[in-house]
Amino acid sequence: MYHIPMTSPSQRTTRPPGRPASATRAEVIDLARRAFLAGERVDIQAIAGQLGLSRASIYRWFGSREGVLGTVLAGEFEALLTRADARRRSAGARRILDVLYRVNRWMTDNEPFRRYFENEPLAGLRILTASDGPVQPLVVATVRELIARAEREDDYRPPLEPDLLAYALVRLGEAFLYNDNVAGISGDVDRLHEVQAALLGIPEAITKPRTDR
Length: 213
Fold this sequence. Notes:
Blueprint: H1 25-37, H2 44-51, H3 55-62, H4 65-87, H5 92-109, H6 111-119, H7 121-129, H8 136-154, H9 162-179, H10 189-200
Helix pairs in contact: 1-2, 1-4, 4-5, 4-8, 5-8, 5-10, 6-7, 8-9, 9-10
């Protein structure tokens, strides 16, 4: 499990009164990310006040509060996947499986992420899994790029068309980590690992998660 440094609210700075607003999208996301990692509710009004913006300005950039949250979550996923890929020692299909295992484990063990789902379960599920939402398309693209790196660097030959494979791997993750409470497998990273291994064509005998990578 990865440790992500958290920033307390007291460490944030407020734009001095009367200072012209010159905030950027990146500053909005930075403050939203700090709140998320601190386990706080992402308050658009508070962010706007700190940056000397109106909520309308933020909504013009991101569409809604869900757009802001989605950008934060997608960025966290991309950063974690990139870090996991840099640390892995495997190649090809095994590389993809090991990286996804690390990411999936983080999604279930990370305290800010779990707290967010506890506080906003329905909104969180919608933001993460909607096919036209702010997260899923970016997550699929990130996994697609992981597959592309394995193709370029490891001479990997995916069993499916890469775009379809990336989409299937992400949708499996959603089903096992978030959606399937009735079946009793929500948050079951090890069973997800087995199914993703089968999809990637990795024999059962070598699918034990490599947590030491």
